[in-house]
Design goal:
14% helix, 6-stranded antiparallel beta barrel, single chain, mainly beta
Length: 125
């Protein structure tokens, strides 16, 4: 009975691990990087905002084959968080796509997760 329960528990924990296998990396061309700043008023004096919160995000455009992807990256450090130096228009980057996330492999180690905000067929140049 204990052996059966142990095997059942092992099978239950093994299924998500097997399903979470990472998608393979693909080579993509970075088309554009745009910084966006969203200012939210924090305090007001009469009808004039006097202090703000700023949220800095980056809109990244990639081309993979015949598809263009647009994704959003929000640095953990705000408002002046660094972005990778290899994020320059025209650079080739290794990326992988999982559902609504696009992961950009970094040259030094690891990867950065961005949120896919759009995808559409690429126009022929």
């Amino acid at each position: 009975m204990k052996l059966r329960n142990l095997l059942l528990a092992a099978a239950i924990f093994a299924i998500p691990v097997a399903r979470a296998a990472d998608a393979p990396y693909q080579t993509a061309t970075l088309l554009n990087v745009q910084q966006q700043v969203q200012r939210t008023p924090r305090s007001w004096v009469w009808n004039t905002p006097v202090t703000f919160d700023e949220l800095v995000s980056y809109e990244l455009s990639f081309r993979i084959g015949n598809t263009n992807y647009t994704s959003e990256y929000i640095p953990n450090v705000q408002p002046d968080g660094p972005i990778p130096t290899e994020w320059k228009s025209g650079n080739q980057l290794d990326i992988r796509i999982q559902k609504h996330a696009l992961f950009v492999k970094l040259s030094y180690d690891g990867e950065i997760e961005t949120h896919i905000t759009g995808r559409h067929a690429a126009k022929n140049p």
